[in-house]
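Why do we care about 3D structure at all? Because function follows from shape, and shape follows, mostly, from sequence. That is the central idea of this module. The next example makes it concrete: a single protein chain, its amino acid sequence, and then its structure expressed as tokens.
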Amino acid sequence: MEMARMSIEDGLVMQVHPGSFRNHNDRVFQRFGPDKGADIPLHTEYTRNLHPLLNEYGNHPDLKLIMFTLDESNYARELAPLAGHYPALKLGPAWWFHDSIEGMTRYRHTTTETASIYNTVGFNDDTRALLSIPARHDLSRRVDSNFLAGLVTRHRIDMDEARRMSRDLAYDLVKAAYKL
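And the structure:
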């Protein structure tokens, strides 16, 4: 609650990354230290846990709250409906174990109908693997373009809408979400 209040006050974007059992492999942790990839997804509950914060600040025009998760089973059930309802809440992209063709595709399919693409932040990257950034952004653009192409072929959107959405997903949404 305090972090949300402070984010409104100072204008910084608030990000939440729950759902990870950190340093799960004791042998890897003891040999190499923390943050070496032995982090395993956990079931995470959002609707009840975010209720006080979203009730207090979820409609505030100055709060930008971006949610990430490793528990992808939550996208359709909780996170997409919350992001579709509360103006302050946006969904961060599929990340970590889900930062792959199939993970990104599942993400688009489970979030778009309820949250729309406009309650996501496109693709942003905070990896320390700097050399992977161009390839990961390219993959995200290709997955999103394929998703939009599917909507065009099913006549749910037209080509002009797909072009606009493609630019939004690749560029404009992330700029707006992070106030760049």
